[in-house]
UniProtKB/TrEMBL annotation:
It comes from the Bacteria. The keyword Protein biosynthesis does not apply. SUPFAM superfamilies: NagB/RpiA/CoA transferase-like (SSF100950). This is DeoR family transcriptional regulator. Gene3D superfamilies: 3.40.50.1360. The keyword Repressor applies. Residues 3-158 form the DeoR-like transcriptional repressor C-terminal sensor domain. Keywords: Repressor. InterPro entries: Carb_Metab_HTH_regulators, DeoR-like_C, NagB/RpiA_transferase-like.
Amino acid sequence: MAVDDKSAIGRVAAQLIQPGQVVFIDGGTTSAQLVRHLPWDLQATVITHSPSVAVELSTHPGVEVIMLGGRLFKHSVVGVGSATVEAIRQVRADVYFMGVCSVHPEAGLSTGDFEEACVKRALSAAAAETIVLASPEKLATASPYQVIPLDELSGLVTMASVSEEILAPYRKRGISIHLA
């Protein structure tokens, strides 16, 4: 996906965060774009298992950052494992912004690593809403390890260039679509 697409998706996702919320933000390059687009006057708490996201927010004056520990999964530069999952279980977040490999109408949300899927599943379970950040090439695809079924997804942020034919199954399931 082009950097411009990731930036546009991040900009739209950042607008969905309300002052005072407790927000889980996943790792990945699109999540990094989300935090770069947070309003400078936003007062919120961001909880992340991504050192990159935490560092990006280190100079944001109104965002409290809470890091989740665990074993560093170098491929995605995020914490994984039982320590990460246990820390997640101690939190009730308003919203979770998930980065994922694949979003499929029947297979749901999935990724290519078993432990990463477990952490994403725990983050989703501990949040009132889950919103996925998905570039067009991730839609209508499936990866080996399911994170959550599509019915557990609240919203989807993707590009306006995605055809209505591809978006229709998600709309039909009642998922809010936010186009960048």
